[in-house]
């Protein structure tokens, strides 16, 4: 979901610039920084960004540079003249400075200056919106390029997990024999070889090894990996769905780790977990 786009447009009295940046987020979170003259259109802007960019922390900045002088302050000449006349009348009673000295004083008196508020212009905003759509288009292209790199990386890591599943099988037969020998040796040391019921021992070993069997977990893990890759091919936003699948992959890996009871197999499980954590980080970038 990380991306960046910018654009600008030229209006009769100003040049407007637009920059949009997106960061990872589970929700749609829009943060607009726009001039007061466009504040009236903020709701429309939020809706457009949410619809076009779908998810993520979205930051948009809009600013402008004046190309022509725009008169914002207006002198109320009638009020100013009235103040000056009163000053002149007072000069007959008290000593009043020259009019040139009094003018700055009169300019600061109430109602002499009125500030013209800039009004929202729908036609001007329509031009600005074209620049916003252009910036959105650039950002989505940026996202697409990043997404292609992500896909390559994630596919590679899923492939590593599948290879590690095959590596597990090399240690399974030795693991069973090692467990069987270890339990048998412990029994001989503690109760004596002549007191062991061989048939009962074999039954208990079979029951115990069934609990340590990881065949089902391997099948489900391979299935989840395949489903993950199939989901990546879908045209709809799949980020959250991929996140759910990684949870299932992690559950099977953890179960294999708890059942492994073998250092070589547990090392492979650690490698799987490492690859999965990197996949989880990357899926946060996917819509």
Strand and helix map with partners:
Layout: E1 3-10, E2 14-23, E3 28-33, H1 42-53, E4 56-66, E5 73-75, H2 77-90, H3 99-107, E6 113-115, H4 122-191, H5 198-212, H6 215-232, H7 239-260, H8 263-283
Parallel strand pairs: 3-4
Antiparallel strand pairs: 1-2, 2-4, 5-6
Helix pairs in contact: 2-3, 4-6, 4-8, 6-7, 7-8
Describe the structure.
- The chain is elongated and about 135 Å long.
- The protein is built from 8 helices and 6 strands; from the N terminus they run E-E-E-H-E-E-H-H-E-H-H-H-H-H.
- 63% of the residues lie in helices and 14% in strands.
- It has 3 domains: 3-69 and 121-142, Ribosomal Protein S5, domain 2; 73-115, no CATH class; 148-283, no CATH class.
- A hairpin with a 3-residue loop joins strand 1 (3-10) and strand 2.
- The longest helix is centred in the middle third of the chain and has 70 residues, at 122-191.
- The model has no long low-confidence stretch (mean pLDDT 83).
- It has helices at 42-53, 77-90, 99-107, 122-191, 198-212, 215-232, 239-260, 263-283, and strands spanning 3-10, 14-23, 28-33, 56-66, 73-75, 113-115.
- A 4-stranded mixed β-sheet has the order 1-2-4-3. A two-stranded antiparallel ribbon has the order 5-6.
- Helix 4 (122-191) runs antiparallel to helix 6 (215-232) and helix 6 (215-232) packs antiparallel against helix 7 (239-260).
- With 287 residues, the chain is α+β, with helices and mostly antiparallel strands.
């Amino acid at each position: 979901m990380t991306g960046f786009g910018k654009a600008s447009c030229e209006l009769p009295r100003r040049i407007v610039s637009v920059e949009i940046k997106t960061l990872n987020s589970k929700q749609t979170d829009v943060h607009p920084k726009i001039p007061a003259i466009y504040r009236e259109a903020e709701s429309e802007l939020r809706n457009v960004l949410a619809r076009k960019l779908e998810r993520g922390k979205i930051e948009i900045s809009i600013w402008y540079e004046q190309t022509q002088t725009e008169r914002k302050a207006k002198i109320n000449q009638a009020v100013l003249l009235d103040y000056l006349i009163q000053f002149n009348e007072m000069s007959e009673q008290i000593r009043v400075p020259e009019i040139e000295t009094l003018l700055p004083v009169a300019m600061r008196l109430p109602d002499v200056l009125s500030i013209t508020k800039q009004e929202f212009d729908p036609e001007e905003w329509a031009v600005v919106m074209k620049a916003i759509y252009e910036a959105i288009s650039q950002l989505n292209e940026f996202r697409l390029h990043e997404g292609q790199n992500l896909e390559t990386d994630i596919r590679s890591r899923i492939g590593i997990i599948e290879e590690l599943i095959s590596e597990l099988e090399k240690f399974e037969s030795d693991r069973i024999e090692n467990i069987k020998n270890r339990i048998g040796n412990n029994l001989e040391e503690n109760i004596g070889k002549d007191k062991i019921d061989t048939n009962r021992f074999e039954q208990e070993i079979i029951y115990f090894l069934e609990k340590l069997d990881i065949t089902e977990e391997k099948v489900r893990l391979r299935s989840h990996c395949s489903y993950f890759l199939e989901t990546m091919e879908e045209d709809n936003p799949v980020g959250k769905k991929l996140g759910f699948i990684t949870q299932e992959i992690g559950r099977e890996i953890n179960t294999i780790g708890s059942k492994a009871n073998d250092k070589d197999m547990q090392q492979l499980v650690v490698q799987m977990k490492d690859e999965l954590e990197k996949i989880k980080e990357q899926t946060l970038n996917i819509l």
